[in-house]
Recover the amino acids of this structure.
């Protein structure tokens, strides 16, 4: 009984004390504020005047204010019915400077975003924990890029106004280099083939490695390579492929890394049964099977499967089913190592085009772009036609980038809008001044050259060029849509003077004046045929050495002046870009006939081919070939100034301009020939080690060609071969090219040139 009475008295005392502490608050005093307003602090408090106060509330106040990160010290007390909160503010940031960091590791824009996200920017309250988190995060970023010796020194300065200045001085150290990189556990594929899937690895040839930095270790690049290897194996049918361990050993000085990747390939899986379900519309199962690039018993390749599904989807999309759904369900049999496929098709509704909008064309008229789009407002959707339209727009050469987006029309399941976004590029120049070419020397130039005149898509060239070797005055205009059906018309006038002795040719001069008219029509979306008529009067003056029996006595004595030439041409173009194509072909065939109603009588047949094939790692394989045949007729010779010449930037590089083929007796000047054979193979790549290189390309090439004096006299011994490296830059005044070449097959007497530059040449 005595114990019960004691507990009762104690409980009563505690209750009395709590009631006393829970007296209502009449006023809240906030002391120590400098930057933050009283109202802001009151908004963070879990209590207000009139509420009861006790020790529990005190803790809530302290926690709420600390959570703001605005204060480094908080005291809460009560005097009577007055609640006093004494605060010491954190200093606010006056500035934060991060110095000596490399943009190759972390860009300034990214760094500023990190600082902003972590609340470490000017005007924000300083929080030491956030600063420590920033330093730790930066070290992680550097380590992921291979900079394991990273150290960051921090300096914090607080002035009399409670403002803090923060300085972070980064000492990056040297990036760790890969001393060795090995893959073990592989049996199906060679180690070298697998290592090529990684952007990093042991150093290449030291000159190449200087630019590629292949031996610089990066965890990001290593992880990306491992993912590429996984995809490579899975695509090849090894669905049980695993990476068992990635062992990375860092040297004591943190400057070299050895990498050992242990893998397990597993078994190869093959295609089992293939079934089609869903709504096939009018398509038979056999027709759909023909769209597959695989059959039962073939090795399961995920890439082929995805391409085949896209082919099926395109068939439905080209019928207007823009949102058709083609899915595949796979059933893996681990005992037989086969995969059964069930391809399910849901066409959904047919879709029509509501609106087509174009943005980004500040100079080019909408109509110029719209006429290249093969699908129209109100028409059925077609995936193939849209892809072809995008390529046609790129082929114009007016835009550096073309994109297309599809958006659904709200409230309508069967209507969509198409949005084309273009980025215009330089299509013309107005020039006045001096230039220099390795072939024609110094030249005074004045002219307007515009492939997109006033944004109409028309071409206008008006130029005056005057050099020691040549003077050229010309006007040329072309309208590619002279009619709505895409008929092209072109016309121009010209006046030319040529001193051949300045072009590594022999001593003759030509003064020619004339005009031309052309017309072409489309046969298909990529193919055109056309005709050009060119009339001119030509005055040919031969030097004394050119008139003798060893040179051109017959032609120099000829009084031929007038020429009426008819050109019949065919062209086909499927390139995916005008300036730097990576896929497609461009072929042309041109037959020229000097009509017998004038003085000159000859014919020329010229065929050209260009093709581009995308390879891995952004490489493009380029194949080029030109074949030319020219002869006189009706008892007349082919004019010597209409012969083919070779050597130089547009021919076999590494040999001097117009130097190939037979020479005049007693002279080192080339005679030219009736037959020209030129071919080139190139591997083209963007310049990855430069930040802004979208208008630049570099290539390695092999050139092969010859000039035969007579059409019937082709001789393999006359072939010339060279290899080299070339660079092309799309500048505001046109493509600028440089090359360095080394002849591999040459003969004594050949004139070589290992370095040259050109303006107006691309790969």
């Amino acid at each position: 009984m005595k114990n019960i009475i004691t507990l009762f008295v104690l409980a009563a005392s505690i209750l009395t004390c709590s009631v006393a502490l829970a007296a209502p608050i009449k006023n809240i005093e906030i002391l120590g504020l400098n930057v933050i307003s009283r109202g802001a602090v009151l908004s963070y408090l879990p209590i207000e005047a009139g509420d009861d106060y006790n020790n529990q509330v005190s803790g809530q106040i302290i926690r709420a204010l600390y959570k703001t990160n605005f204060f480094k010290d908080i005291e809460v007390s009560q005097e009577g019915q007055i609640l006093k909160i004494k605060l010491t503010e954190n200093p606010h940031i006056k500035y934060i400077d991060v110095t000596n960091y490399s943009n190759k590791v972390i860009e300034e824009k990214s760094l500023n975003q990190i600082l902003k996200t972590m609340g470490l920017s000017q005007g924000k309250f300083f929080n030491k924990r956030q600063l420590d988190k920033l330093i730790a995060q930066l070290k992680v970023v550097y380590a992921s890029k291979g900079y394991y010796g990273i150290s960051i020194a921090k300096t914090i300065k607080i002035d009399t106004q409670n403002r803090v200045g923060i300085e972070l001085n980064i000492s990056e150290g040297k990036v760790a280099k890969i001393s060795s990189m090995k893959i073990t556990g592989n049996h199906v594929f060679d180690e070298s083939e697998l290592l090529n899937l990684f952007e990093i690895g042991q150093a290449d040839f030291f000159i190449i490695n200087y630019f590629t930095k292949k031996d610089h270790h990066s965890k990001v690049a290593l992880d990306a390579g491992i993912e590429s290897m996984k995809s490579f194996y899975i695509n090849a049918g090894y669905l049980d492929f695993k990476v068992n361990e990635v062992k990375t050993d860092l040297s004591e000085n943190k400057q070299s890394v050895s990498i050992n990747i242990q893998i397990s390939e597993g078994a190869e899986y093959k295609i089992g049964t293939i079934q089609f379900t869903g709504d096939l519309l009018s398509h038979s199962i056999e027709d759909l099977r023909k769209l597959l690039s695989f059959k039962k018993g073939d090795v399961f390749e995920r890439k082929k499967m995805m391409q085949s599904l896209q082919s099926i989807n395109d068939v439905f999309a080209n019928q207007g089913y823009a949102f058709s759904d083609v899915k595949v369900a796979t059933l893996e049999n681990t005992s037989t190592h086969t995969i059964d496929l069930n391809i399910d098709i849901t066409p959904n509704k047919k879709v029509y085009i509501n609106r087509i909008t174009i943005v980004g064309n500040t100079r080019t008229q909408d109509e110029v772009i719209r006429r290249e789009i093969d699908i129209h407002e109100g028409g059925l959707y077609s995936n193939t036609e849209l892809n072809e339209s995008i390529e046609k727009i790129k082929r114009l050469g007016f835009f550096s980038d073309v994109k297309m987006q599809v958006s659904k029309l709200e409230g309508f399941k069967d209507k969509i809008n198409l949005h084309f976004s273009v980025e215009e590029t330089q299509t013309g120049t107005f020039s006045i001044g001096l230039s220099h070419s390795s072939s024609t020397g110094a030249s005074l130039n004045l002219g307007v050259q515009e492939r997109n005149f006033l944004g109409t898509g028309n071409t206008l060239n008006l130029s005056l060029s005057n050099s020691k070797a040549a003077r050229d005055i010309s006007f040329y205009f072309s309208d590619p849509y002279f009619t709505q059906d895409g008929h092209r018309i072109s016309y121009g006038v010209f006046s030319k003077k040529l001193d051949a002795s300045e072009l590594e040719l022999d001593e003759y001069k030509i003064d020619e004046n004339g005009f031309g008219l052309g017309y072409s029509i489309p046969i298909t979306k990529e193919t055109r045929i056309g005709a050009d008529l060119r009339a001119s009067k030509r005055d040919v003056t031969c030097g004394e050495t050119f008139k003798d029996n060893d040179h051109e006595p017959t032609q120099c004595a000829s009084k031929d002046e007038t020429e009426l030439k008819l050109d019949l041409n065919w062209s086909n173009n499927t390139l995916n870009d005008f300036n730097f194509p990576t896929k497609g072909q461009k072929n042309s065939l041109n037959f020229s006939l000097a009509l017998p109603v004038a003085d000159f009588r000859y014919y020329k047949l010229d065929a050209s081919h260009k093709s581009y094939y995308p390879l891995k790692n952004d490489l493009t394989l380029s194949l080029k070939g030109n074949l030319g045949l020219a002869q006189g007729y009706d008892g007349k010779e082919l004019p010597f100034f209409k012969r083919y010449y070779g050597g130089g930037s547009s021919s076999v590089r590494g040999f001097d301009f117009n130097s190939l083929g037979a020479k005049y007796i007693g002279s080192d000047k080339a005679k030219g020939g009736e037959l020209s054979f030129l071919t080139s193979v190139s591997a083209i790549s963007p310049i990855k080690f430069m930040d802004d290189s979208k208008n630049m390309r570099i290539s390695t090439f092999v050139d092969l060609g010859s000039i035969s004096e007579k059409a019937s006299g082709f001789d393999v011994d006359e072939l010339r071969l060279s290899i080299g490296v070339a660079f092309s830059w799309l500048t505001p005044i046109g493509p600028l090219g440089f090359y360095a070449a080394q002849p591999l097959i040459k003969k004594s007497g050949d004139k070589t040139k290992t370095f040259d530059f050109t303006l107006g040449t691309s790969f």
Q: What stands out?
A: The domain at 428-759 is CATH 2.40.160.50 (Porin). The first strand starts at residue 27 and ends at 31. The chain has six domains: 18-89, 92-171, 177-264, 270-346, 363-422, 428-759. The first helix runs from residue 2 to 21.
